[in-house]
Amino acid sequence: MNAKIFVVLIILFAIISTAITFYNTIVTKKWRNKVPNEEEYWKWGFIYYNPTDSRIFLPKRTGLGYTLNFAKPISIIIILSLVIFIALTTISKK
User: Fold this and answer.
1) For the chain, which terminus, N or C, has the lower number of CB atoms within 10 Å?
2) What is the DSSP string of 33-62?
3) Rounded distance, CA 17 to CA 51, Å?
4) pLDDT tens for residues 60-72?
5) Terminal CA-to-CA distance of the chain, rounded, Å?
6) Between these two residues, 31 and 85, which has the higher pLDDT value?
7) For the whole model, what pTM was predicted?
């Protein structure tokens, strides 16, 4: 893979993830005030599934980081994109 393309992809990923983080911070603050108990939306304690929640990324229940709202179809696309990206970078190094 061309080094310039790789750098551009990393920069693009950084910009998109920063924008998503800022957007979700605003939505999360509004959502936490509306939902007194979101326990029922956590499946097996670590998978968040809530069709009424507009967030795609949301803070994890414990620890640092974010998780996906698996009720939104875009979350499956995000997971598949990451898997394909990792597979392509692994194949291209051989």
Assistant:
1) C
2) HH-S--GGGEETTTEE--TT---SEEE-SS
3) 22
4) 776 667 889 999 9
5) 11
6) 85
7) 0.54
